What does this fold into?
Amino acid sequence: AALDSGSVAIARQGGKISYIDGKKITLLVNNKKKIDTNLIIYQRSNNGTCIHQKSRVTQKASVKKGQILADGAATLQGELALGKNILVAYMPWEGYNFEDAILISERPIYEDIYTSIHIERYEIEARTTSQGLEKITREIPHLESNILRHLDKSGLVLPGSWVETGDVL
It folds into this structure.
């Protein structure tokens, strides 16, 4: 089932692993021909989720044609991994489940049982106005420095910043 998921990297031919890093796996076939398999690293899917592959093989390991080289988003250790079951109770609770809401404990979220990485892409454009070309900058009048803590010198969000609703991006 994992092979059919489309999320794993598969050996196109049999051989020996000659090189591995976070971006590619190199397979040596018959001690002559090298075949590179590029891994998908933190790419955005069409619905905004993260697609990422992790190597499952070790250097100098022998692999067969069709063997899984790297796990994908829906696999773990070469097997399909579609989530975890949770025991829930559907009941009224202080009015928080009005109409279509269901409450669960925060524990599965804080223990990374039901978390996922989502990638959003935002584009900005500097336009020409009657006062000249717009400028992308960190210098925003009337804002305190703690509000701008996520921005670099040029006014763009620092990679890896934890941002929340209302933060200046």
